[in-house]
Predict the structure.
Amino acid sequence: MESYIGKSDFFKGNDPERLVREYGSPLYVYNEDIIRRQMARVAGVITKYPYTANYSVKANTNIHILRLALAEGLNCDAMSIGEIRLLQKAGFPNERIFFVPNNVSEKELRVAIEEGILTSLDSLSQLELYGTLNPGGECAVRLNPGIGAGHSEKVVTGGKRTKFGIAAEELDGIFGLAARFGLRIVGINQHIGSLFMDPQPYLDAVSSLLRLAVRFPGLRFLDFGGGYGIPYHKLEGEAEYDMAAFRERLLPILDRFVSEYGDAPLFKSEPGRYCVAEGGVILGRVHALKQNAGRKYAGTDIGMNVLVRPSMYDSWHDIEVLRGGRLLPRADMEEVTVTGNICESGDLLAKDRLLPRLRRGDLLCVLDSGAYGYSMCSSYNSRPRPAELMIGRDGNVRQIRRRETIEDLMAYM
Ligand code: LLP
C-alpha cells in the first residue's frame, strides 16, 4: 500500500501540520471510525453461541476510547484497580468488568470482592488468598494451556516459560482449594500471548482449554484470551488478520465441545491490540539530521518515552513522512536510523529504515500506535507525556487528553 493515512483518510481532511501547531509535538491522533470498525469485528467473531468480546484495556485506557468500547457493546478486562476505576468512570457497570490480575495484594482482591467484580486467579497461591477473603464466593481461574504465541518472547504468556496461569497438572490443587473454601469456579480463562497472524496456536489452545473444561462441571463461561494480530508492515503489503477464516476454523471446534459438554457456556475473548492499534498514529517532528560512522540519523521528538515498543521489543512501526502538511511520495528514498531525544543509545524508533530523504522540520507519522503506545508512555528524562486527539466520525477534532506539563511532573513532590 502506498500510504495508509491516505488510503484510510485517517485525518479526514484535517491538516496534520496544523494539528501539531495547535496541540504540540509529539502528538497521538486516533480515528474513531477505525477503532469502532475493529471493535465491531471482534464483537462478531462468534454469533452461533453466546459470546462477548472483552476489550483488554491495557492496550489503551483513554477514557474516550473505553466509551467507544461501551458503545460497541464490548465488555472489558482489567489488570489493576486503576483500570477498574477508569472503566467505572467510563460508564461500565461492574458486571461488565472481568478482573484478570497477576500477583496482586490482599487489598486489591478485597476491592474487587467488595464491588462484586468477578475475578480470575492465576496461581494456587492467589486462589488460596482469594478463598480466605471470600469463602463461599464465585471466581474464575486462569489456566495455562501449555501453548504460547507472540511477536516477542517478552509477550508470550502461555507454555512452559511464563509466569502466567495455572498449569494443567495443578487442576487437583484448584479443586482442593475450591472445596476447602466453598468456592464456585464459574469460569476458566487463558491468554497465550500477544500478536499472532497465524491462528493455529490459538485454535490449538482453544482445543486445549476445552479439553480441560470437561473437568469443571457447570461453567458459566470460557475465555480464550486475546492476541489477534494486525499488519505492522502494511506499507509493504502485509495482509490483515483473516478474521473470517479464523471463525470458520473455530466454529467446528466449538460445535464439537458444545455437543459433548451438553450445553453452550458463554464464550469470551480478550482482544486489546486488534481493537485500537490501527486507529492510532503518532505525529512527531524531525529536529536534527546527522551522519555517524557512515550511518545517517534523523533525530526526532518521538523517543522511547512516547513509543517504547521499538526499543523494548525491536518492534516495527511503518512511518510516513509529511512536509508542509503534504504526504511525501515513497520516492527518492534513503536509509536512515530514526531516533528520539532520550539519553539512551537504545532510543531507536527505526533502524536503517528506507524513507523519503528527510529534512529538518519534516513531520513523521508513526502508524499502528493506538495499542501499547500511550498506555506504555513514560515521563523519562522528565519529558511530559503527549496530548491525544480523536478525529470523530464527522471529521471534528477533539482533544481527549491534554499534554502533561512540567508542573504536572512536580505535582507529587
Ligand atoms: N488478556 C490478557 C490476560 C493479556 O495479558 C493481554 C495482553 C490481552 C488479553 C490482550 O492481548 P492483545 O489482544 O492486545 O494481544 N506491550 C506488548 C503487548 C503486551 C500484551 C500483554 N497482555 C506490545 O506492545 O506488543
